[in-house]
Amino acid sequence: MNKLGFITALAFIPTLAFANSAGFTLGHNYNSTSKIEKKLKEIGKDIGFSYSLKYTGPSLSPDYQNGATYKRSSSGQAWHGGDNDPTASTQLYHSTALSYKATKNLKLSYSYTFQEDLNKGIKYESYFADGSKAGEYERSNGLSYNNQRINALVTNIYSNNYFFLMSSFFYERPTTDGSQADEMTHGLGIQPLIGIYSSTSGLYHGLKLSIQRYYYKRQDYNYNCGGYTCNTKHQTFIAGAGFYIGYNISDKLTIDGELKYDWDMDGDQVNQFDDIEITNLGAIFDKEYNANMDDVLEFGPTYRFNKSMKLGSKLQFAINKPDIRKSAILVNFGLSI
Questions:
Q1: What does the pLDDT look like over 50-68, one tens digit per residue?
Q2: pTM higher than 0.90, yes or no?
Q3: Which helix (H) or strand (E) segment is 179 a member of?
Q4: CA distances from 269 to 34, 237, 274, 280, 294 (A)
Q5: Contact, 46 vs 100, CB < 8 A?
Q6: Coil, helix or strand for 118?
Q7: 254-278 CB burial, b ≥16 within 10 A, e <16
Q8: Which of 101, 163, 179, 265 is in the most buried spot, having the most CB atoms within 10 Å?
């Protein structure tokens, strides 16, 4: 992989550029002031801020009501084993992060994300366990928020003549009303990226993985609801895998694609891991998983205006159950300072 390909691969895990801070005059002791200014400038060079915006736009299918589209995060396996209805509003997803470059290969950041469902009155269906229609409901619209995370990005874990390994790690805090009501205590995650070097100039490709574990005071429990026994299972484990490939058409224009696969476990399902020994990690693949979201393919161009700003567009569609209704146009904007 050439240097430009390596830089492009880095964009798959959130990274931030570095900001130069202005000097400060703190007093009349110019000798002391110059030392303080120098130190502040050194620190300022290692501080960065990033903002990204993703617009989930219309589907290629003409069957959706006005303002509705296919939203992958609303898809996946329902409680009864069937599919969730992925119909939802078009959406703006915002992500911000403040970072500090602790060492040459370690960057720490604090991230804050939220989304805005743009249209109200978007209808979707729910189903009984036998697949029959239970009813028609409306999606909520407006702003909603996600838990905040403390992240660590390690950029040079291992490399040889064939591939390199980097990874991000996160600690998730239960900062939303929903996660606090669910008595979530914390979440942990590791998201490695393996980049494969290419002998073709401009070509880059590799593998992305994600493992996330969420902890609750009660992850799986029964309770009385109107004379019936009801059960609540919180999402306790998420695993993802992605295969990406791209090509640098020029220094500013790239085109790339990615296959994304996603699974999860709810409640005590995660206890399946308790009997796995370190000498038999292959047993992980023998466990029972749910389809957390549809498996999808995304591809399209990205244009980099400079090192700090880029704009891209992708076509997304489901591959596990191909259907023109399961498609959406995505637009991405990124800014780092």
A1: 999 999 999 999 999 999 9
A2: no
A3: helix 177-181
A4: 59, 9, 10, 19, 20
A5: yes
A6: coil
A7: bebbbbbbbbbbbbebbebeeeeee
A8: 265
